[in-house]
Each structure stands twice: as C-alpha cells, then as structure tokens.
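Hi there,

I know you've been waiting on this one. I reran it after we fixed the sequence typo, so this is the corrected version. Both the input and the resulting structure follow.
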Amino acid sequence: MPYIDENHLVSLHKTIEVKEIQEQRLLNELKKQRVEKDKLYRSRNFLRLVSVCLFVVLVLGIALYFIKPSVYINERFLESKNKMLIEKSEWNSFENEIVNLNQKLHNLSLKSKNSAEALIDTMLVYAVQVAAFEDKGISLYSSELKNINQYKDKPFNKYALGNFTNLEDANLFRKEMVALGFKDVFVASYKNGKRIKIEEAF
C-alpha cells in the first residue's frame, strides 16, 4: 500500500476545495445566465405581444376610419360646444336653404318697410312739432330719416320729431326738447298723414 504523507493529504484537500469552489462558481454563473436568458425570453415575448397588439389596433383604427370616421369624434363634447357633424351633401343643402331664406328676408324687409310707412300714414300718431317754414319747394331732411316728419299745410311745411302712439310719451319727449332749448315746441296729432286736433284723437 502506498504511503501518503500529511502534506500530500492537505494539498489534496486544498485542491478538492478549490475544485468545489470553482464548481460552485460555475453553477452560480450557469444559474445567473439561465435567469438572464429567461428574462430575455420573457421580454422578447412581451415585445412580440405588444407589437401584435399595436398592429391589430392600427389595422382596426384604419378600418374604422374608412368605415365610420365619426368614431374618432366625441359627439357629446361637440354637443356641449353647440356643434354637430353633418355630411357635405347636407351642408350644401343648408347653404342653398340659407341663400333662399336670405333672399326671402330681403324681399320681406322691402315689403315691411313700405307697409310700416303705410301703417304710420293710416294710424293715429303723435309728434312734437319743432318748426314751420314757408314752403319753398325744398326739403330740410333726407327721406331715409323716418323720425323726422314733414307735413304740408299751405303755405307752410311743418316739421315734427318722433312717432308716438300715445300722448304721454309725446309729452315726455316735448319736455326733453324744451329742456334742450326748443321753446316753442308742442305736441300735434296726425291721422292719415293730416293734422287733426288733439281732442279729435280721443
């Protein structure tokens, strides 16, 4: 039987311990690499899943955009801002209708202007007479000014301000005119474009 001295035995134990430590380190390194590999594998799978989901959402979004674009617009938000979505054909019909209504409104305003003048001519009106001048065949105001009235009373042209449907309003206006410095102003009543006595108005 061969003889092993103590130094060899100690050296052998040290070698075994070193080998065990190296083996343990290798095992730890393998475990670490396995964990990193698993992490990498999971992250790759996660990225694949996210990519697939994004692709599906993109495809659905494009499909919905071409099928129904209003999906992207919050209609309640639009209603809260007093707005709404309409199709172009509807918009064109609305524009045509607006043009037609504007034309009718213009025609009606011309008619109502003439009818308002006719109404003033036929109803009882109180006005504040501010002047009476001898008729020289000229007008002292533009015919577009409707609150200045000219009444012919030979041989005078009489000018009155305001059109009032009741005597109280006309008297209030006369007082304001007096306060402004018009001393000889008075309330006169007119019917059918002709001067009548105040008593006849009642």
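Quick highlight: The mean pLDDT is 76.

Best,
R. S.
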